[in-house]
UniProtKB/TrEMBL annotation:
This is DNA lyase. Its cofactor is Zn(2+). Belongs to the FPG family. GO terms for biological process: base-excision repair. Residues 2-93 form the Formamidopyrimidine-DNA glycosylase catalytic domain. PANTHER family: FORMAMIDOPYRIMIDINE-DNA GLYCOSYLASE. It comes from Aeromicrobium erythreum. Residues 238-272 form the FPG-type domain.
Length: 287
């Protein structure tokens, strides 16, 4: 799933290529991908892209005051093209969900496709007058990369696993499954530790880890073309997606906990005092 660093880099990538262009058309290959009806998607045609921003994991193209908002969900991606085919999209069940054609004055030949792999479709497109009209954006917690962010007050009273705390978009915006694994590894915290029971030193480690892991990932992602961001993300991971490999910090074997529709990876030596987390039903809430 694209998370804050990748979405931020995508926003910068589009800012360089789309701002100043006129939206020639927005073509849909799936009715289900469009989550709004007023304003209609056709109202974007003929308007100019004036900015591209990020809200959590949402992309926001400002189109002369209207907003084309995209959430890539778990398996979605954005594919830029400098030479789009003239053939229009047809409705279907393939990975191609939508196409945005842009015109820099020489014809609608550039733009981007929104694609989504797999059968579980979650990619969402909204056309709104204000980004806050998108429920997911209106409900977002604070962005951890803004000046003055600190995690301590958000932890108070949260009797929930710190892994779930980091992934809850209503508490902290922009962090997903991969970077929460990386943050907890850097902070030397068990993913099953209770957020409300972290001591002052653990809170400080978590605060530093959030800024460091996300900051480094954002710095490395920026400047890369959209086509390279996925591989760049995978190469940065120290524990996420690396079950069975050696931890780069201590050399222990990275372990995994598998749930019904997701999994997490961690280092037993670095994070749980050497104790394995078997599964959600039998593991203890290790601190």
């Amino acid at each position: 799933m694209p998370e804050m660093p990748e979405v931020d880099a995508l926003a910068a990538f589009l800012r360089e290529r789309a701002v100043g262009a006129v939206v020639a058309d927005v073509e849909l290959a799936s009715f289900a991908v469009l989550k709004t009806y007023d304003p209609p998607v056709s109202s974007l045609a003929g308007l100019q892209v004036t900015d591209v921003r990020r809200h959590g994991k949402f992309l926001d193209l400002d189109v002369d005051g209207l907003h084309l908002v995209v959430h890539l969900a778990k398996a979605g991606w954005l594919r830029w093209s400098d030479q789009l085919t003239d053939k229009r999209l047809k409705m279907g069940n393939g990975p191609l969900a939508a196409r945005v054609r842009l015109d820099h004055g020489d014809g609608p030949h550039v733009g981007f496709d929104l694609t989504e792999a797999g059968t579980r479709k979650g990619l969402a497109v909204y056309v709104v007058r204000d980004p806050q009209d998108v429920e997911g954006i209106a409900a977002l917690g604070p962005d951890p990369m803004v000046d003055g962010f600190t995690v301590a007050p958000l932890l108070e009273g949260r009797r929930m696993q710190v892994k779930r705390f980091l992934r809850d978009q209503k508490i902290v915006a922009g962090i997903g499954n991969a970077y929460s694994d990386e943050i907890l590894h850097a902070a030397r915290l068990s993913p099953f530790a209770l957020a409300s029971e972290l001591d002052a030193e653990q809170v400080e480690r978590l605060d530093v880890a959030i800024r460091t892991v996300l900051g480094e990932a954002m710095a490395e992602a920026h400047g890369k073309p959209a086509s390279e961001l996925k591989d760049g993300k995978r190469s940065r991971m120290r524990v996420h997606g690396r079950a069975g490999e050696a931890c780069p910090v201590c050399g222990d074997t990275v372990a995994e906990v598998v749930f019904a529709d997701s999994s997490l990876q961690y280092c037993p030596t670095c994070q749980t005092g050497g104790k394995p987390l078997k599964d959600r039903s039998t593991s203890k809430f290790l601190k």
